[in-house]
Amino acid sequence: MNGWVLPEEVLRGAPAYTPRPRELADLELLLSGAYAPLTGFLGREDLASVTRRGRLADGTQWSAPVTLEIPIGLTEQLDLANPIRRVLVLTDAEAAPAAALDVTEAWEARAGSMYISGQLRRLGEGPRGPFRKLRLGPAEVRDQLPQGRVLGVFADRPLHRPQLAQLAHAARTIAGHVLIMIPVGGPGPDGLPPEALVRAVLAARDRLPSCTIVAVPLAKTGDDFRDALLYNRVAAAYGVTHLLSGATALTSGGLRVVLPRELAYDSRDGQWRSRDDVPPHTRRLALTNEEIADLLDRGVTLPEWHTPPAVAREVRRSRPPRRERGLVVLFTGLSGAGKSTIARGVHEALLEGGERSASLLDGDVVRRLLSKGLGFSRADRDLNIARIGYVAAEVARHGGMALCCPIAPYHSGRADARRLAHEAGAGFILVHIATPLEVCEHRDRKGLYAKARAGEITNMTGVHDPYEAPTDAEITLDTAGTVDEAVQTVLEYLTAEGWLEPGRR
Ligand code: ADP
Fold it and tell me: Which domain holds residue 28?
C-alpha cells in the first residue's frame, strides 16, 4: 500500500464520491486493519471466488462480499489505463475526504452500477464523531491487551445484569481479559443510536471485570450470515481469542466461541446463577428484548434486580416513554383523499389537549416553501418526500410530533421516511387514507382531476402516475366514516399505543 505514490495534483483533479453508509463502515474497517488480511474492497476475481467457495482467490477463508458499488456515470469519468486519471476520492457523509482509491478494476454490478476496486489510501485524520477516543484500531488495541486469553463480546445492546453475570462467568472460566466491542456503524437492533448505546455500556463499567472497551464501526446489514462472519473476523483482528456469542456454527479465523450460559436470578440472595441451580419458586428469568422495549415504551423503570440503576437511567434517557418520545405520522393517499383535512383535525386536537408539541407539514404548504420549485416527476416527488421525511425526523428527534401529508405515492420514499425517523430515535406511523380514485375525482376539491382529464396537467397521481398502495400502514382509513370519525380513529390509535396520554379527551 505504501508503494503507491499519490501526487497532490492527481488528488486535486480526482472526482469525489460518497459511498453508502454500509460501504463507508466497511471502508473504515478496511483502513483500520479490522478486516485483515483484506486491505481493500474485493476485486473481481476475489469476489467471484468468495461467492463460489467462501475463499479469496488465494485460498484464504473469507465469506463476506465486501464491495464498493458506484453509479456507472462516475466510472466514465475515470480512465483505468491512466494512473493519474483513475483516482477516486471517497468522502464521508459530511463530504470530507476519507480515502483515495486507485481504481484498477471496474465491472458491472447491476444495471446502472459498477463494482470498483484497487489500492486504498487513507486521507484526512481518520474517524470522526463522538466517542472518538474509543474508536481504536486493532493494532492499538492489541498493544494494550495483556498477554494471554482475551474474551471478546459485541455489545450491540446495553448490558443488563444477566449479560454482566454471563460475561463475568465466562471471563472467570477461561481466565481471560475482557474486550467489549460496541458496534457503532449504525443504530443497534433496538434502534438505540450508537452514542446512546456507548453511554449505556459505559454506565455498567464499574460492574464489569477488568476490561477494555472499544467502539467499532460495524453495522448490521440484515444479512445475518455475512454479519456473523465479519464480526468474527473483526474480533480476531482485535486480538480476541474467545468470543462470547450465541452463534456457534459460525466460527472462523481460529476463534473459539464461548456459549453464554442461561442464567436466572435467585431472589433468595439476589445472585444470578445457572438456571437449573435456582429453584422455580425463587427464580426470575432475564427479561426478553421485547419485554424491555415494552417497559421502556410505557415509561416503567427497568427493575433493579435486572438492570443496574445507572444503566436503566441511561437507557431511559435515549428511549423515553412513548408519550414523551418523538413521533412522525405520515398520511399518504391520493390527492383529495382527505390527508390534510384529517391531519389538521388531529393537529387541532393536539393543540387543544396541549400534551404534545406538534408540527403540521402539510403537502401544499410544504410545496410553497420547503420544496418550492419541485415538480411532479418521479425524481422531484422523491426529493419532496425526502425533504419532508428529513424535517419530520428532526422535529421528532427533539421529542416533537410531526404530522406530514404528502401524497407519497412510492413505497421506497415512505420506507426512507420511516428509517430516518427510527434513526432519530423516534417512532413512525403510516396512515393510509385509502379513499378510492372515483371519490377523490368526484370531490375534485382543487380541480386537478378535471385538468388532468383535459390534458392540462400530466403526472397526476392516480390518473397518469402510479400510486403504490402501502402494505405496511399502521392505520388504514376508508371513506366510510366522517372526517371527525377518521380523526378520532387516529387519536385513539395513538392513545392505545401510548403516544398520547389517556384521558385527555
Ligand atoms: P388531500 O390532502 O388528501 O389532498 P384534502 O384533505 O385537501 O385532501 O381534501 C379532501 C376533501 O374531502 C376535503 O374537502 C374534505 O372536506 C372532503 N371529505 C369528505 N369526506 C371526507 C372524509 N371522510 N375524510 C376526509 N376528507 C373528506
Answer: 8-122
Residue 249 pLDDT > 70, yes or no?
Answer: no
Does ligand 1 come within 6 angstroms of the Cβ of 479? yes
pLDDT digits (tens, 9 = 90+) for 395-406: 999 999 999 999
Let me know if 309 is exposed, middle or buried by CB neighbors in 10 A (0-12, 13-18, 19+).
exposed
Encode pLDDT of 435-472 as tens digits. 999 999 999 988 999 999 999 988 899 999 999 999 99
Task: Give dist(CA 218, CA 228) in Å, integer.
Answer: 11
Residue 253 has pLDDT above 70, yes or no: no
pLDDT at 252 over 70: no
Average pLDDT over residues 164-187: 94
Q: Does 91 contact ligand 1 (Cβ within 6 A)?
A: no
Looking at the DSSP bridge assignments, the partners of residue 404 are: 330, 361
Q: Please tell me the distance between residue 440's alpha carbon and the centre of ligand 1 in angstroms.
A: 8
| Average confidence score pLDDT of the chain | 92
Q: Is the pLDDT of residue 1 over 50?
A: no
Q: Are 483 and 435 spatial neighbours (Cβ–Cβ below 8 Å)?
A: no
Ligand 1: does its nearest atom lie under 6 Å from the Cβ of 445? yes
For residue 407, which atom of ligand 1 is closest to its CA? 3
Q: Whole-angstrom Cα distance, residue 230 to residue 35?
A: 8
pLDDT surpassing 80 at residue 115: yes
339 lines ligand 1 (CB under 6 A): yes
State if residue 487 touches ligand 1 by the CB under 6 angstroms criterion.
no
Report if residue 370 sits inside a domain.
yes
Ligand 1 centre distance from Cα of residue 454 (Å): 23
Residues making up the chain, counted from first to last: 505
Residue-level pLDDT at 452: 93
Positive or negative, the CA dihedral 195, 201, 204, 207 is: negative
CATH code (residue 112)? 3.10.400.10
Q: Which atom of ligand 1 is nearest to 337's Cα?
A: 3
| Atom 14 in ligand 1: residue holding the nearest Cα | 445
Among 330, 354, 355, 299, which residue's Cα sits nearest to residue 406? 330
Domain with 461 in it: what CATH number? 3.40.50.300
For 167-182, letters b (16+ CB in 10 Å) and e give bebbbeebebbbbbbb
CA distance 234 to 240: 9
Nearest-CA residue for ligand 1 atom 12 is 338
Asked whether residue 116 falls in the same domain as residue 227, the answer is no
Q: Find out whether the beta carbon of 239 lies less than 6 Å from any atom of ligand 1.
A: no
Residues near 58 by beta carbon (within 8 Å), at least 6 away in sequence? none
pLDDT over threshold 90, residue 348: yes
Asked if residue 325 has pLDDT above 50, the reply is yes
> Is pLDDT above 50 for 346?
yes
Specify the number of domains making up the chain.
3
